[in-house]
Amino acid sequence: MAKGFGVKPIKQLGYVLLLFPSAKAYAARLDFDDGSGQEFIGVTNMLKEAQIWKTQKQAQEAVVKYAEFLIEQASDGSEVRINIRRLNRDSSGQLTDEPVESLLLVSKDVPE
What we know:
Shape: elongated
Number of helices: 1
Order of helices and strands: EEEHEE
Number of domains: 1
Helix content: 10-25%
Strand order of the largest sheet: 3-2-1-4-5
């Protein structure tokens, strides 16, 4: 039997952030510019439109931008889960993602 026979090679493309696991909503690409000078925080449910980070460390650092946005949307005491997922493309061109790391954030009202 030939080596690798019957196995489809998978190409790792990088890492994506799954912001709303129940809705399969990912952090959207950051290439949008509305002219305001502020960084775009977008969400998409299409994996092909998700922002891709080359390393897991870059994805971890990007969590900070999205965490602030998600916690603002949550009510006091609510939990927010952000998942870092590995993005792959199989030999047929299909994009898939698999879990790598999950971060749980809890919204807490801080007295001023």
